[in-house]
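Input.
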Amino acid sequence: MWNSQKPLELLLSMPSTLNKENIINLQAVIDVDKIINSQIHNRDLCGEYAPFCDFCDKNLSYPCAHAYVKMKQFEGLDVEVAQEVFEEEAAPAPVDEPAEVVIEEPIQKKEINKGIRICQLRRKR
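Output.
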């Protein structure tokens, strides 16, 4: 079902310590094949697409690439993900400073004494 050769060829052409760009490229190759297979099967194959899905951690930014690398490490391939990739993913997103809140004084309503006016409409003949 999945094309195991493309990600392997790409991984073998990369350095043994993968940086963020390597992970992004690996994810892209896997995603293309996963999308094609999902369309063929008319459903999302996430989690069951390939053997490396057993290693998936969806909390990571590029879960397929990380899972594929973990599977290859388990199989004995000498490859690792640089620590800064994990640190970038774990770093909390910068929080914008909250805008200054201005509380305005409520507008006082003037009491207007409106009389009730009742009128009757007549049809022209």
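Residues 20-41 form the longest helix (22 residues).
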